[in-house]
């Protein structure tokens, strides 16, 4: 009997896992304004630097940010492909749901026209 292969997180799952936390979303929002050091990014949050670095590593592993160390300063920047992948997936889902809503609307309109035609007889 074959056993199921363990599920490895794909890129999209890593991105949505990273975006599931408000601290990480705030970091992404801040980095949308431009590069920032880890200490600058951490300053609004009431947590130790080691805990904050876990958020940074998760964002980095998801492919949404890159970090670069220069001396004692680690600078973070947005890394485009990660967010673009999430945006593309959401756009595809939106297109599917809009198509379904359009079909439902057309169905309701036909039903309504049928009822109006029946009441006119």
From TrEMBL:
CDD domains for this protein: HTH_ARSR
Entry's Gene Ontology molecular function annotations: DNA-binding transcription factor activity
- What domain of life does the native source organism fall in? Bacteria
User: HTH arsR-type domain: from which residue to which, for each copy?
Assistant: 4-98
Pfam families per record: HTH_20
Keyword ATP-binding attached = no
Q: Which UniProt keywords apply?
A: Plasmid
**What NCBIfam families is this protein classified in?**
HTH_metalloreg
Q: Name it.
A: HTH-type transcriptional regulator
What lineage is this protein's organism placed in?
Bacteria, Pseudomonadati, Pseudomonadota, Alphaproteobacteria, Hyphomicrobiales
